[in-house]
């Protein structure tokens, strides 16, 4: 059986490995349009900061390792069209020619492409050595070349999402002054504004000039980069200048090949797939940042994350070789990012998302120590917990705390509870580890859950009294 996979990043390689694991006789070919198979895009900021010295170390597996698994990698080969009736994939080869590759099963793992915001002059600026996207290893190497060869003292970052924040830290670590612009009122739209505000304060302490609620309306790149800024629809504008500009305004699913082949789209314009990663077209599967994400609390959504892509790719690889009893169980939206000395994480739903999804949400904001106060170095974790009033089901948690506070592992506990349908009471009853240097008898999560129950009880009593009084 011939399995062809379009895309050599997380989902594509996970699918190839799983297919070969289940069916060693399967002929697996991975087609990718660059020379960087199975690289960690998430590691790019740490290469740019200098913490990872050699970009090649960002590879999950080397080309030799992939070949040893029996996977044929065709690099610098661009997939141009999918012929469903003939089971052929038309490609442009490295020498500029064309070639057809035969397939019995096909996995589309084309990933996502950067969002290019509507900014006057941006398209032309991207053709210079002053304005950069950071989405691929090639992008990262181009930016690193500029950082190494040009005197860069001030960088402009357009976008304050997860990658934008990691880049702000990376460049600051290199000694570059950073000015960062975000169109929304707060950074990280996926977390609570209160916690976002605390993270904004951390950026200010570290010297990052963050400007929120402000759009970049134009960009000019010559010997330096000048951007024009405006707030909302105001005609009042200001300008600022840097040596380079980096555009990280999010991503969108890459679906052109799939759509041309007849695949239908779902949420956010991503390829629709079922839980076996089937597209509805016989013999064609899809996985990764190009497809919809099944969210356990929201249903169909779009969450382009490396962790999700690995899982989806694995399911697609299994289904492609006939193992159809494996299904993608879905996600609960777990994310974490380190920004200088702080870590912010979230899982589940915000109060607005929960209300829109038909729950009856109630949210509290509180804080707790990461370990016993009498042991030196105790720090505060800020927590926002959302639960359903009628069922007491845990719906979502946002957390912010110092890097020493194990926020990332506490959010993992919350994610596990969410995927298990745990109630607030059951969260309190979890048998979690405790020792004074690392925790408290009641973990920070359990302290927040206890407070939630108390406030919900008080709220219900207040409502009952109002009803009794007429």
UniProtKB/TrEMBL annotation:
The residues covered by the Pyridine nucleotide-disulphide oxidoreductase dimerisation domain are 336-439
Record EC number: 1.8.1.14
Q: Which UniProt keywords apply?
A: FAD, Flavoprotein, Oxidoreductase, Redox-active center
Q: What is the superkingdom listed in this entry's lineage?
A: Bacteria
> GO terms for molecular function, please?
CoA-disulfide reductase (NADPH) activity
List, for all copies, the residue spans of the domain called FAD/NAD(P)-binding.
2-313
Q: Which Gene3D superfamilies match?
A: FAD/NAD(P)-binding domain (3.50.50.60)
Please verify whether the record's keywords include Nucleus: no
Keyword Nucleotide-binding recorded: no
Q: Which cofactor does it need?
A: FAD
Which family is annotated? Belongs to the class-III pyridine nucleotide-disulfide oxidoreductase family.
The name of this protein is: Coenzyme A disulfide reductase
- Source organism per entry reads Ferrimicrobium acidiphilum DSM 19497
Instruction: Read off the lineage from the record.
Output: Bacteria, Bacillati, Actinomycetota, Acidimicrobiia, Acidimicrobiales
């Amino acid at each position: 059986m011939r399995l062809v996979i379009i895309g050599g990043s997380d989902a594509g390689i996970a699918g190839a490995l799983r297919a070969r694991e289940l069916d060693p006789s399967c002929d697996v070919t991975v087609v990718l349009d660059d020379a960087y198979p199975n690289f960690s895009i998430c590691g790019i900021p740490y290469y740019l900061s200098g913490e990872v010295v050699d970009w090649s170390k960002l590879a999950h597996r080397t080309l030799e390792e992939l070949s040893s698994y029996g996977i044929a990698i065709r690099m610098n080969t661009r997939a141009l069209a999918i012929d469903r009736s003939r089971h052929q994939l038309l490609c442009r080869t490295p020498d500029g020619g064309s070639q057809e590759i035969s397939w019995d099963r096909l996995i589309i793992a084309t990933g996502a492409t950067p969002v290019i915001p509507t900014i006057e002059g941006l398209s032309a600026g991207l053709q210079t050595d002053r304005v950069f996207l950071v989405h691929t290893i090639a992008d990262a190497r181009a930016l690193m070349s500029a950082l190494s060869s040009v005197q860069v003292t001030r960088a402009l970052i357009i976008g304050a999402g997860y990658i934008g924040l990691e880049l702000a830290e990376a460049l600051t670590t290199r000694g570059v002054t950073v000015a960062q612009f975000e169109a929304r009122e707060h950074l990280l739209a996926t977390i609570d504004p209160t916690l976002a505000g605390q993270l904004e304060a951390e950026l200010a302490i570290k010297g990052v000039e963050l400007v929120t609620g402000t759009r970049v309306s134009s960009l000019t790149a010559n010997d330096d980069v000048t951007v024009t800024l405006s707030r909302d629809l105001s005609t009042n504008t200001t300008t600022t200048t840097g040596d380079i500009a980096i555009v990280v305004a999010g991503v969108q699913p890459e679906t052109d090949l799939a759509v041309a082949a007849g695949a239908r789209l779902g949420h956010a314009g991503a390829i629709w797939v079922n839980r076996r990663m089937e597209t509805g077209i016989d013999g064609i599967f899809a996985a990764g940042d190009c497809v919809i994400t099944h969210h356990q609390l929201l249903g169909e959504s779009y969450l382009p994350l490396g962790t999700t892509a690995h899982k989806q790719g694995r399911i697609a690889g299994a289904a492609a070789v006939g193992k159809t009893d494996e299904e993608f169980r879905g996600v609960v939206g777990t994310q974490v990012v380190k920004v200088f000395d702080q870590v912010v994480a979230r899982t589940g739903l915000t109060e607005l998302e929960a209300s829109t999804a038909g729950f009856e949400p109630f949210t509290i904001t509180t804080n707790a120590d990461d370990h016993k106060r009498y042991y030196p170095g105790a720090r505060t974790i800020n927590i926002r917990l959302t639960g359903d009033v009628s069922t007491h089901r845990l719906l979502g948690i946002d957390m912010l705390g110092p890097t020493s506070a194990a926020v990332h592992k506490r959010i993992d506990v919350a994610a596990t509870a969410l995927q298990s349908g745990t109630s607030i009471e059951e969260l309190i009853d979890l048998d979690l580890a405790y020792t004074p240097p690392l925790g408290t008898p009641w973990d920070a999560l359990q302290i927040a859950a206890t407070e939630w129950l108390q406030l919900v009880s008080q709220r219900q009593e207040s409502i009952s009294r109002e009803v009794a009084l007429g």
